[in-house]
Amino acid sequence: MSVDTETMQSIKKRVYELIIEPPEGDRVANGVNNAILALIALNVLVFVFESVASLQTQYEGFFFYFEFVSVVIFSIEYLLRIWACTYSEDYRRPIMGRLRMMATPMALIDIIAILPFYLAALGFDLRFIRILRLVRLFRLFRSGKLAQAFGLLVKVVTDKKEELGLSVLVLILVLIFSSSVMWYIEGNEPGTQFTSVPASMWWGMMTITTIGYGDMYPVTAAGRVFGSIVGFLGICVFALPVGILGAGFADEIRFRREAAEKAGLESAEDEAEEVDEVKLKEAADHCPHCGEEI
Q1: Vertex 120, ends 126 and 111: CA angle to 5°?
Q2: 23 phi and psi angles, rounded to 5 deg
Q3: Residue 208: burial class (beta carbons within 10 Å; 0-12, 13-18, 19+)
Q4: The pTM is what?
Q5: Which domains does the chain have, with CATH numbers?
Q6: 180 near 204, Cβ under 8 Å?
Q7: pLDDT by position in tens, the chain (length 294)
Q8: DSSP letter string over the chain?
């Protein structure tokens, strides 16, 4: 391997660490990653304020230049990410590896977030897609305690997917039943909003979730009584997934604590066995009466 190639590989490795996979304890790499995350958050914040017509008119120049600088930084980061990805074993092949990297969900979100600025010159208004930059904040879940917490959440949802699926099925059945009954009760009233089962489902969901916007409500005595029953059932229905997730978290935390305690006990036993072996060896090498080395 030539010196130039070694230097290039060293540069690629460092770029990979700075942009893609910051090593634990590397302050510079973590600083770069945090700076990108901060810029993403600022872009989302600017997007929110830019939606206010008065602010957009008053600070139009600031919004444009801020977006311009941000897009340049994101474009450079994207290109460096594609260039340095071949340092990883997963994307080792120069062409296919980079194509695989470009097809990953995060890379697709990056390019979708960048393209609207360039496409604006062609008359397309895709600025709303910039909100997808917020999804990149999930990088936070790859480090430290947040990664552990996110892993715990995924593990619980995966383990309890059947129970959660059953609770969603119960919710759907209650929604269809309550909407159908309310349409039957209120559907023939003058000026009713319960014109069909699908139309009644909006009322059903708002009642089951106990939100109750008040834009749809029964006017008959039977409808009001039934609506009260549906509201009570909604509390019970939505308590199911909450209870399932709560029990899952408790079980997983208890399991991890027990596993850690067991690992600690096994480690202590191994250390004790090593100490006993050392003592037996020392006893075999020394006289049991005078203690002198044999």
Answers
A1: 60
A2: -65, 150
A3: buried
A4: 0.61
A5: 3-140 (1.20.120.350), 161-284 (1.10.287.70)
A6: no
A7: 445 778 888 888 888 888 888 887 888 888 888 888 788 878 878 888 888 889 888 998 998 899 889 889 989 999 999 999 888 888 888 889 889 989 987 788 788 778 777 777 666 666 666 666 566 666 556 555 666 777 788 888 888 889 889 988 998 999 999 999 999 999 888 888 999 999 999 999 999 888 888 888 899 999 999 999 998 888 888 888 888 888 888 888 888 888 877 777 666 555 655 545 545 455 545 555 555 655
A8: --HHHHHHHHHHHHHHHHHT-PPTT-HHHHHHHHHHHHHHHHHHHHHHHHTSHHHHHHTHHHHHHHHHHHHHHHHHHHHHHHHHGGGSGGG-STTHHHHHHHTSHHHHHHHHHHHHHHHGGGT---GGGGGGGGGGGGGGGGSHHHHHHHHHHHHHHHHTHHHHHHHHHHHHHHHHHHHHHHHHHHTTSTT-S--SHHHHHHHHHHHHTT---SSS---SHHHHHHHHHHHHHHHHHHHHHHHHHHHHHHHHHHHHHHHHHHHHHHHHHHHHHHHHHHHHHHHHHB-TTT--B-
